[in-house]
Amino acid sequence: MRLRKNQLVFASTDLSAHLSCQHLTSLNLRAAQGEFERPKAFGPVIERLRQKGIEHEQGYLEHLKDQYDQVVELDDGATLEDSIAAMASGADVIYQANLSNGHWDGYADFLIKVPTPSRFGPWSYEAQDTKLARTTRAGTILQLCVYTMLLEDLQGVQPATMHVVPPSRDWETESYRVNEYGAYFRLLQRGIAEFTQDPADTYPDLVPHCDLCPYWERCEAVRRGDDHLCYVAGIQTGHIQLLRDGGIDSLQAFADADELPRPNRGRHETLLRLQAQA
């Protein structure tokens, strides 16, 4: 997410980030507006994952070179015009294509030529993304939906399918029909646009995406400063909401509470055990 000529332009990863954590969208918006600099994610786990991802991507690129005659590799400085030129040339495979429509940007790992006519000729392209996860996640599908939308704008025809390349010896791809995900994609697309036009107040609640988030230290400082209930070992989101509804909104308040709210579902003894840990 960034400002370009006073217009907010979304990256392909912004949609999956918004689905994971609206507070992350709020922070990215403030960074895009120049309030602070967006930190870079780092750490041994992140660096290892990044390196493994590059190795997987390069391995698949070599596999495609063995399968196709015309493989165009675009470098980091490639422009949208470079990508359009490669598509117009009828290349079998385009690696790291720069895609944009002025409102959304993205770099597709691979574009694969298919025999569906487009404004370029008797062919068009579909997007493929390499991912390390053996189970395809919602964020991956949403990124591919962005690439598919951008491809439709550029080539004048919507790709029928989009593809994920998980780790495998035979480089088998998983294919997904675009029309099965289009309505949900457009719903989330409208949602992030409305959110950034009129941002809601958000809080850095602890979510699974926190493990890989570049804002970890910033959000962690807020949670620690607020003595957040999430630091009770084993506590669930439902427990936290129940306690907050009962006026208990910190570790100290939880530990000191003489009475605890009784859950409509689950055991009261679970809250007592969690209180002992607090």
Structural class by sheet pairing and helices: alpha/beta
Distance between the termini: 39 Å
Q: Considering DSSP H and I runs of 4 or more, what fraction of the residues is helical?
A: 40-55%
- Contiguous uncertain segments of 5+ residues: none
Main sheet properties: 8 strands, mixed
What pattern of helices and strands is seen along the backbone?
EEHHHEHEEEHEEHHHHH
Radius of gyration: 23 Å
How many individual β-strands? 8
In DSSP terms (H or I, runs of 4 or more residues), the helix count works out at 10
- Percent in strands: 15-25%
Mean pLDDT, as a whole number? 93
TL;DR?
The protein is an alpha/beta fold and 278 residues long. Helix content is 44%, strand content 17%. The chain has 10 helices and 8 strands.
What do you see in this structure?
The chain is elongated and about 75 Å long. The protein has helices spanning 12-20, 22-32, 44-67, 80-88, 138-155, 182-197, 216-225, 237-245, 251-256, 268-277; strands at 2-4, 7-11, 71-73, 93-100, 104-114, 124-130, 161-165, 174-177. Helix 1 (12-20) packs across helix 2 and helix 1 (12-20) packs antiparallel against helix 5. It is α/β, with parallel strands linked by helices.
List the main descriptive attributes of the protein structure presented here.
278 residues; alpha/beta; 8-stranded mixed beta sheet; 10 helices; 44% helix
